Amino acid sequence: MEDVTVPSTCKGCERDITISEEQITRILNNMRPKVECVNDKVYEARLLACSQCKDLMAGHTCGISGSIVRVRALAATQSCPSYSGSRWQGTA
Fold it and tell me: Any idea what the Cα angle at residue 31 is, between residues 26 and 32, rounded to 5°?
């Protein structure tokens, strides 16, 4: 029987996490008519909290959830996945 190597990280962590501004904008534009979104004030507050988080990767990816923070922050039903409690307190 052939040996199977089991990766020590999750599949998502092995991928290149870079994403272009154009790709993020396209996702956000497709999302707005289909998903309940927060208002601009809440969105900006969430993005500010994410920008100050040590788990932010490459300026756009949440190191905890693997999501694009601008996409996650826009969705009204989403929350901050921080291990120490939501960084989005009072931004609902």
Answer: 105
Select from 88, 25, 34 the least CA-distant residue to 60. Answer: 25
The pair of structure tokens assigned to 22 is 């154009």
Taking only the tens place, the pLDDT of each residue in 47-79 is 999 999 999 998 999 999 989 999 999 999 999
pTM score > 0.85 for this model?
no
CB atoms within 10 A of CB 80: 22
d(CA 76, CA 19) in angstroms, rounded, equals 23
Residue 8 CA: distances (Å) to CA of 11, 12, 37, 55, 90 = 9, 12, 36, 19, 37
